[in-house]
Structure formats: C-alpha cells, structure tokens
Model the fold of this input.
Amino acid sequence: RDRIVVYEALAPYVKEASQESILFMTIGLIVTAVIVVVSLRNLMYPKQESNEPPMVPYWIPFLGSAIRVGTDPIRFYQECQEKYGKFFTITLVGRKMVTCLGAEGNNFVFNARLADASAEEAYKGLTVPVFGTGVVYDVQNSVLMEQKRFVKAGLSQENLRAYVPMIIKETLEYFERWNEPKGTDDIHEAMAELVILTASRCLLGDDVRSQMDESFAKVYSDLDGGFAPINFIFEDLPLPANRRRDQAHVKMRNFFLSIMQQRRKNKRTDTHDIMQYLLDNCEYKNGRRLSDQEAAHILIALLLAGQHTSSTTSAWALIYLAQNPEIFDALREEQIRVLGSLDAEVTFDSLKQMPILDNVVRETLRLRPPIMTMIRKVLRDLPIPGTEYVIPQGAYIQAVPMISQRDDGYFKNADKFSPFRWEDYDKQQKERDDDVVDYGWGAIHTSSAKSPYLPFGAGRHRCIGESFAYVQIKTILATFVRMFDLRLHNNKFPEVDFTTLIVTPVKPLVDYTRRDQKK
Ligand code: HEM
Done:
C-alpha cells in the first residue's frame, strides 16, 4: 500500500519527466538522422560543380576532412593523391580547399597571379590582430613587397656575421641549466626558450634582450596565443584568449616604440639589429619614410614568423641526431676538419664550409617542414593548366610541399633521415636558364616554384628569413654538439602534433650527457 501511495505521489513528475525526455529523444533522433543523411550524401555524392577538381568524400558535415588532416595528414594526402591525382578538393571546417600536390601543384599555387589568388585574403584574419595594422597582410601586396625588401636588406651578410658570436653566447649560457653530467629533458621546450633569446638579441638588439624578463615572456605568450587554429577559421571571436592577444599586442608595440625613442635620444647607431636598420634606412618608393609604428609591427611579425619555425626545426634536427648518433660524430669531425679543433671559434665564414651541418638542417626541413600548408584565396574562377578543372572563385588553394618532400619519386627512401643524400642531389642540379623575376625584394628564378622541395615556399611570398634561420639553427647545433651527446629517451621517437599551425614534436624527451663538464 505504501508503495502505491509513493507511486501515485510521483506519477505527475514521472509523467512530466518522461514527456520531456521523449521530446529530447525525438529532437536527438531527428538531429542524428539529419547528420547521418547529410554525411551519407557527402560520402556518396560530394557536392561540386562538374569541372571542379574531384571532391574527397567526408562523414562529418562542416568539419569535412579536418580530423584526418589533424591526425595523419601525410597518409591522408598520400592516399588522396593515389586516388585522385595531384589536384583534388577537400572540405576543411566549412572551406572548400583545393589541394595542389607535387612540383606542378607547388608551381600552380606559388606562381599564381595576384589577380587570381591572394595570400592576404587567406591569412589576414589570423595575422592582423597579432602583427598589427599597416604591415604584411594588412597592406596592398606591393607594399608588403617593399617591407620585405627592407627586412632582406637588414639581414645583410655583415649583420649575419655579427650574429654568430651572439648566438653562441646565448646557447652556452642557456645550457648552463643542463648542468648535471647526465640528464633527461624536453628538447622542444629548450629550443623554444633558446630561440626567442637568440632571435631577440639578433633582430631586436641587446637593449631589448636585456629587458626580457618574465613579464615579457607572458606578453609574448599571450600574443602567440593569437595563432590558435580557431582564429584561422573564425575571425576575431570574442574569446578571452583573443582579448589577451589584443592587450599583448599593444604592450609589445609600446615596448618597441619606447626602445626606438631611447635609441634616437642616445643617438645609438652601433648595433647590427633589424630594429636599427628599420629606424635608419627605410623609405618607400614614393618617398614616404617607414613610420615607427610600422617598424614596431614589422618587428612583431618577424619575431613570430621566425620563432616556431626555427625552434621546431632545431628541435627536430636534434631529435634526428639523437636517433642517429653517428651523424653527431660526423658533425664534430667536420668542425675539427674546418677549424682544427673543437675549441676553435665557430664563425659565420666557417659555418659556410660545413656541408654536413648544412645538410642536417636541409634534411630536417625536408621531413619536418614546420609550415605544412601554404594557402591562397581564389579571387576569380581559376583554371588549372593542363587539366579540365576550374577552381571556383571563393575557394582556397593549398600547396603541401611536405608531401612532395616525402615522395619516393623525388627522393629515394624518402622517409629516411639521410643528410648525405643532398651531396648527390646537388651534383644532379643543372644550371638554370629560365626567367628571373623580382617582385620587389630580390631576384628569384620562376622555375624555383616547380621544385618538390620548398620548405621556405616560393614566388612573391617566399620566406626572406631563410638566411637568418640557417645561421641561427646551424650556430645552435654547432655549439650544442660540442657540449652534449644525445639519445632519445627510452629510444622513443616522438609523436607529431599536426593540430597546431606549426608541426611540432609531442613532449620529445632526450637523454643528454655533458661532454664539456667543468672540472
Ligand atoms: C614566408 C617558412 C623562418 C619571415 C615564409 C613562407 C614559408 C616560410 C613556407 C611562405 C608562406 C606562404 O607562401 O604562404 C619558414 C621556415 C623558417 C622561417 C621553415 C625557419 C626554419 C623565418 C624567419 C623570418 C621569417 C626567421 C624572419 C626573420 C618570413 C616572412 C615571410 C615568410 C617575412 C613572407 C610572407 C609573405 O610574403 O607572405 N616562411 N620561415 N621566416 N617568412 Fe619564413
């Protein structure tokens, strides 16, 4: 009887609850059914115009192939290439992305005409809040080309020569913290911390470097947080991270402006950094001088463009060396051959005589190029030469040199880390006799975009930081091999994180042994 009373008392609630849950279940079922139908349709009949490059089917509406691209892009793109050829379309978080592979694909994207495809339109939502206005992708392409000319001229041979001792000093000081005879540490974390110090000393100057403390690190990290992949997809969402990014941008710019003012007051001209070059030398073709604010924004752009690219490359290089200790030995032998001993000073000129060191960096960039894809937005319907395909206006095109760089057709045993392959490769290269073009920051061969190996891109948007990056990474490695022997911790080669905008190793632990322990 008691039980019946309780049931009766509960009945209205149970009825209400079950009515609610039936409603929720019905909505849930309808939503699931819609997703399943849409997914099946996408999978069986992906939406596209008849002359567009073939569409890769996908299950999840809107996200499209994002999960495959974020987890195993190498296998995904290789499989697509086998099935559809060098040009195919994927859906990537609501975007139609025509993927262009191989040397032909690289050439198509990098040599696309300004009226046809735009890097600015593809990147500005992500970059302008971080770099600031009036520079890079916030200006007309012709202005960006002039700004690249300023920076390229600032990275002169004379300045690069002056950077080598600075980088050695920073590296020696940084690794004082790995002070046990043996230890285990995260090599990516170490390289990220070291590269911001070396890059700041070289590009920004000793006055900036001497003021870099924890508060600078916080501002830098908040600014860097603006490069979250979500900002690539949705412009300027009102997220706390974006608010922190905007505040950090203002702080960083004001910091640089105050250093510039101090330099003017003290009439300082004795430095080799880019800040000084931008202050003293830069005038646009129309006679207007580069403003201090533009200079500050260019410096922010350079710092961020070089940071993750160079630090991950240094980390990957050391990971490959830890896996191949005989190349560690070869690097030391090379230094002894060039310099006479491991105590002699490494200089800018001696670095040029070390091909194994050069090829270690080159090979690392072949297997682990930090920038996986380079993207342009299509401004008007764009036919792909030699095919029937036409890419519709509003779609995106992407080059993925990482795939041609790992293609056995271009590189024998392409998945193997082998710096010595470049000796043969260089011998086979013929003299170029094609057109030379100057987009405003230096002459380049148009055929360079047809290469399967393009870790620094090609064409008008090609990297102008390559020479600095090489000097920086090679100097760090040359100093490091003198100080340490390295092995992979538990012999484990790190996993790769493809979900960040720069391809990074996941917690790469290494076991080090100090070779230069102080007595
Ligand atoms: C452009 C890679 C270091 C400054 C690029 C591009 C790539 C690249 C692939 C072309 C992007 C595109 O076409 O969409 C790398 C790698 C680096 C490196 C792999 C190091 C290992 C640096 C450094 C700096 C720098 C150290 C500055 C000092 C730039 C600039 C551009 C650029 C200004 C031009 C962007 C444009 O014209 O649109 N880089 N970079 N990079 N990079 Fe680098």
User: Anything to note?
Assistant: The chain has 20 helices and 14 strands.
